[in-house]
Amino acid sequence: MAEEGKKVRFRTILEVLGKPKEHVEKAIKEYVEDIRSNPNYLIIKEEFSKPKEQEKMWSVFAELEMVVKDVQELFGFCFSYMPSSIEILKPDEVTFSNLDVTGVLNDLQAKLHGLDSTIKRFRAENGFLKRNFKTTITNFVSVVLSVKGQLTIDDLSKFSGVISEELDGLLKEMLKEGKIKKEEDFYCLP
After folding, report:
1. For residue 37, what are the β-bridge partners?
2. One domain, residues 12 and 95
3. What are the tens digits of pLDDT across the range 94-105?
4. Does residue 171 lie within any of the structural domains?
5. Per-residue pLDDT tens for 101-119?
6. Are 101 and 95 in contact (CB under 8 A)?
7. Do 100 and 169 have their domain in common?
8. Where are the beta strands (DSSP E) in the chain?
9. Position 121 in a domain
10. Is the predicted pLDDT of residue 5 greater than 60, yes or no?
11. Which of 11, 25, 37, 181 has the least CB density, counted as fewest CB within 10 Å?
12. Comparing C-alpha atoms, which of 60, 55, 56 is closest to residue 17?
């Protein structure tokens, strides 16, 4: 066993990214409160950053100094809360048995398999949504053109709520498939 019962003191940083700003501030505090409610973790010191805007989103972090009963609890913390960094303050040296390393590697593999499964599910859902969105907008363009006759890409953009740059690719596909035709700057049904 890896120095069983030997307490580990460490510093960690947890980050939250999202919007709106108020939600991010609330989320980081709830995240830390969840850690505090776990009897296996002792928070000695905590410091919260001010929210910082990053590419239309807000970022905030909490720096915590904590104590856990042993290295296995530290690994458990990492797998559960996925901090952005960990710095072990005490003890100066940590040793592991092959059984300890095996357990950690199996936990890591389980986490990676879970993430892989989630990514595959999101990809499938994203593909489904993209196909349905394309079909919906194609049908919408056909219906609007059947009612209005001829429209420019800007007019179609206003009616559909899809920006012209994104609508352009779809209109080119519809032209190629013969679903619509273009006369000068105007689109219409064939």
Report:
1. none
2. yes
3. 887 888 888 888
4. yes
5. 888 888 888 888 888 899 9
6. no
7. no
8. 8-18, 42-48, 52-54, 57-68, 85-90, 181-183, 186-188
9. no
10. no
11. 37
12. 60
Cross-strand bridge partners of residue 43: 66
How confident is the model over 142-148, as a mean pLDDT? 91
Q: Is the pLDDT of residue 158 over 50?
A: yes
Question: Are both 105 and 14 inside the same structural domain?
Answer: yes
State whether 20 and 73 are in the same domain: yes
Q: How far is it, in rounded angstroms, from Cα 34 to Cα 41?
A: 10
Residue 42: Cβ within 10 Å count: 15
How many domains does the structure of the chain reveal?
A: 2
- Say whether both 93 and 149 belong to one domain: no
**Which of 93, 20, 91, 95 shows the shortest CA–CA distance to 60?**
20
Last residue of a domain, one of 57, 76, 110: 110
158 C-beta neighbours (distance < 10 Å), count: 12
Q: How many CB atoms lie within 10 A of CB 163?
A: 9
pTM summary value: 0.62
Containing domain of residue 164, as a range?
133-188
Chain center to CA of 62 = 18
> Is there a single domain that holds both residue 92 and residue 163?
no
- Last residue of some domain: 75, 95, 110? 110
pLDDT digits (tens, 9 = 90+) for 31-58: 999 999 999 999 999 999 999 998 889 9
Q: Return all residues near 92 (Cβ < 8 A) that are at least 6 apart.
A: none
Q: What count of other Cβ atoms lies within 10 Å of the Cβ of residue 71?
A: 23
